[in-house]
Amino acid sequence: MKKNVFLSLFAFAAFYTANAQAYLGYTPDNYAGVQGVLFNPASIADSRFKVDINLFSTSSTVANDLYGVKIFDVFKDGYDFDLEAKKNFSNANNGFMNVDAMGPSVMFNIAPKHSLAIYTRARAFINVLDVNGQVINDVTKDNKNTFPTATLGSPNAVGNSWGELGISYAAVLYQQGQHFLKGGITAKYLQGVANYHFQGTNVSVKYDDFGDPLLDRFTTNGNAIYGSSQDFASDSDVDIDSQSRGFGVDLGLVYEWRPEYTAERADINDLKEVNKYKLRFGVSVTDLGSMKYDKGVRNSYDLNGTFTQDDFDSYDNFDDFMKGEFTPIPINGTVRSYLPTALHADVDWNIYRRFYLNANGDLGVASRTKLNQNSIANRVSITPRYESKWFSAYIPVSYMEYSEQAQVGLGLRTGVFFIGSSSIISNAISKSSRAADIHLGFKIPIYQKKAKDQDGDGVLDNEDECPTVAGPVENNGCPWGDQDNDGVLDKDDKCPTVAGPAANNGCPWEDKDNDGVLDKDDKCPSVAGPKENAGCPWPDTDGDGVVDKDDRCPKVKGTLANKGCPEVTTEVIKKLNDFSKSVLFDSSKATIKPESHDKLEGIVNVMEEYNNANFKLEGHTDSTGNVAKNLQLSKDRAAAVKDYLISKGISADRLSSEGYGITKPIATNKTAEGRALNRRVEVILIK
């Protein structure tokens, strides 16, 4: 009797806990397709699918923090839940339930960086929070033992079911080198189906067993607010009202780090058929919104009262019971039910090739004490998986609030079908499971085609302007041209239409001064000059009109006729001979007397002044004495003057000497004066 009353009061066969995320372990898969928008709407941008069509899929979860069972024994005949379940009583036990089903849905790419999804979805969500577990245990016992007044607490219970029509849009927001960011948004139209909500304040219950069903009674105290989507007391059938509706929003971002992107592999972001990230970070907020029940009713109740099992059995439903046993006080205003808003974050690591490791966290951000507010249980999970185009296998390991147990599951995807559970392995071995779930679905996947690159140049054909001829990425897949055939590619050629050497960036060398010497070789490119002088004009240091290269006296002005050197004039020769006539020798000898040195120094000075002139020293004698001896004496004296001049620095190459004896007199030998003139050394200019 007592169990029936309790189950009717709360409209549950057992306590359940809402899963924090539907399709746990499956949605991080890069081939989750349209199911991915339920967790993060940004996931469908840059998808491995060209089109993904969901025919039907569902995800259901049951769990609790009060009863633990050996899950597969529950389905056996004769299983006694109260006797065989392990119980965990507290002053605030919690219960939830979540059923999620997707009908016909589709996602597709509307542009290379933009994707769209349209889905249909039916959901049922139940929360029962903060109920005294020991009271629940006492109420549900089949024996007739009396128990004293016990505080049930201030429970907050919400049961809500609705349909969704969602439209998701996702796009690539930023793409630069190794960094890739995409975002998404889902707008949801909500069609309310049915809603119950109950919020108690200081509720207590007492049972008195008098041994007679007509006398055994419950005594209750406290206050409560009870409401529903319609007045089920007047019509127990669920009436789906088109005016009972609302709107919701999901938001999401996904960042991917793509280290394989390099300057040489800049095309990697265009490969739609492959996963390109090493690390992926996702964050999303789901179920922002609410729905209004147009025919909803809500009453306040004073629960102070007493009733028997016969009293309860006389009512057709719980609504009739509440109104019959307690006085309802209508609460005016809109009956609005709030979605279980949640924050989700995940990190996906591509360990090696097709092996991945995903870490996921789900956090409920909705108030758990708000009237008619559904909420999720917080959950963390780690899921290793193997993933390929037509097959995936994943093993989620998770820990969820309330159940206080680690769960291990298993899932498989085979392209057109997927099935999994986040608790199947732990439930198979545990004797006190508090959670069980399953998800499965059927779909039609149309994958992205492998991008073609006929010429193998790393530029995909759809972007290659020369798809059959290899060329660099910088030139859109075409080889660089060479219009002037000078061996310098146009991309590097500063004169692409005029041939020129590579050393001058493909341009011909210039000759600005038109001297026949190219500027690259011309040391004086703006002044004409001969090739022999590297394009520079020959210098004329002394400014005598004879350039230095031809000037034998480049530092002394001269004449062109004398190759740039000063002319040796008659006056100069006379001066030299005046000096030479004053040179005295010892009698009958070639020894120069010391008093002649000043005159010789005068000859040295003149010869140094005209340092390019060559001279011949001629020795002469008078007719006195032996002719042969005089000839030799003239030679020796000329040689003596030559040797002196050489000793003073006059180059020997410029001097020569000869003796002529008595053969070239310049005066008579009959007089003393004439003979003195004939004894001489003359300086002769050699031209």
Automatic annotation (TrEMBL):
Is NAD there in the keyword field?
A: no
The protein's predominant localisation is membrane
Query: Locate the OmpA-like domain: which residues?
Result: 572-687
* Localization (cell): Cell outer membrane
> Which UniProt key words apply to this protein?
Cell outer membrane, Membrane, Signal
Give the signal peptide as a residue range, or say none if absent.
Answer: 1-22
* Record region (Disordered): 528-547
Looking up InterPro entries in the UniProt record yields: Bact_OuterMem_StrucFunc (IPR050330), DUF5723 (IPR043781), OMP_bac (IPR006664), OmpA-like (IPR006665), OmpA-like_sf (IPR036737), Thrombospondin_3-like_rpt (IPR003367), TSP_type-3_rpt (IPR028974)
Q: What is this protein called?
A: DUF5723 family protein
- State the organism named in the record: Flavobacterium plantiphilum
